[in-house]
Amino acid sequence: ETTRAGLRMRAAFLITLFCGHAASLQLVPWTVRPAACPRASAAPPLMQFNEEAREAMRQEMQVQAEAAQEVAKAQIAAQWVTLEAALPATEPRDAPVLTLYRDANGWCPFCERVWLQLEQKGLPYEEVLISLKDKPAWYLEMVPTGLVPAVKIESSGEVLWESADIMRRIEADFSSDAAPPLLPAADSAERARAEEMMEGSAALGKAGFQVAMSARNESLGEPERAALRASFEAALRHLDAQIAAGGGPFMLGADFSLVDCTYAPLLERWAVQLPLTMGFDLRPPQPDATPRWPALEGWFVSMAALPSYATRVRGDTYSWSAAVGTFQRMF
After folding, report:
1. Sign (positive or negative) of CA dihedral 229, 234, 238, 243
2. H or E element: which one contains 199?
3. Where is the GST N-terminal domain (predicted)?
4. Helix, strand, coil proportions of the chain in percent (round to 5)?
5. Using one digit for the tens of pLDDT, what is the confidence trace for 102-157?
């Protein structure tokens, strides 16, 4: 009973505190409900505004939001000014002579050939990335094959596809003192040698693809896999001998050429991916190891020091390693 009395006293105190009418309150048994709080009954219902008041509030909130947006825009603009001031000065670029359409992932070796050629020649160009999984309708209308790469010549609007045709057209139409040719003079012995090596890239590519797929082809026996590997190794020895015959370090000799553009995409991928997929080392696994193909290793080293390739076009080791799983699911 004492406890109940104490509780009634506390309840009375709390009601008095919030309602302010202690004199009208009496301690009553819990079975009797006390009178309603006068302030509570007298207060208007919450959030009961007429239409005019609600519209005024809405307009005020909109004005405040717009003002906040303007402040944010001004802050962003000021930040851009600060960032632009911190950027190093760049030389103005000439108007693009063509537009290159290439794959968005940077996986296509044929796109890389043209891309490297443009970078090495220093030609101004626009670049449009095409999703291979969802090619735009306008691209399919422009390029009948739907494949990449493609280029559109700025002066004529002509569209070209097939990497070999594109590269030869670029050499024919856009070589100058400012954009040195990447092929030897026509009808020269060096030109014939360049043509032979570029033609041979298809055979090397086929041999490399076959040996890479053989590692996962359960229908092949060990003798068939060994024969494909031997064929690939023979093609690499032939390429190594061709580089050595030209004096290196590049494919034709001392100068970078269109032959290097042709081989670079295949070789850079194989150097990363073949050790992972089949334990095949195209380059020495350790820095101090003797290269199996010394002229080819010299080519890798020289390409890594070529700015147009190393800083712009070449894929990184992580990306080529991560792409292995995707390629295996595709093929």
Report:
1. positive
2. helix 189-214
3. 96-178
4. 60, 5, 35
5. 999 899 999 999 999 999 999 999 999 999 999 999 999 999 999 999 999 999 99
Contact 197, 251 (CB under 8 A): yes
Residues 38, 20 share a domain: yes
128 and 100 Cβ atoms separated by less than 8 Å? yes
Q: How far is CA 56 from CA 50, 65, 68, 106, in A?
A: 10, 14, 18, 55
Of all residues in the chain, what percent carry a pLDDT higher than 70? 81
Query: DSSP letter at 116?
Result: H
48 is a domain residue: no
Q: How many domains does the chain have?
A: 4
pLDDT digits (tens, 9 = 90+) for 65-75: 899 989 988 88
Q: Are residues 158 and 241 in the same domain?
A: no
Q: Take residue 89 and report the two structure tokens written for it.
A: 């000065």
- Quick check: is 273 in a domain? yes
Whether residue 257 lies inside any domain: the answer is yes
Give the tens place of pLDDT for each residue, 255-310: 999 999 999 999 999 999 999 999 999 999 998 999 999 999 999 999 999 999 99
Q: Are residues 264 and 318 in the same domain?
A: yes
> Counting Cβ atoms within 10 Å, is residue 282 exposed (0-12), middle (13-18) or buried (19+)?
buried
CATH number at residue 139: 3.40.30.10
pTM, 2 dp? 0.71
Residue 114: which domain range? 98-173
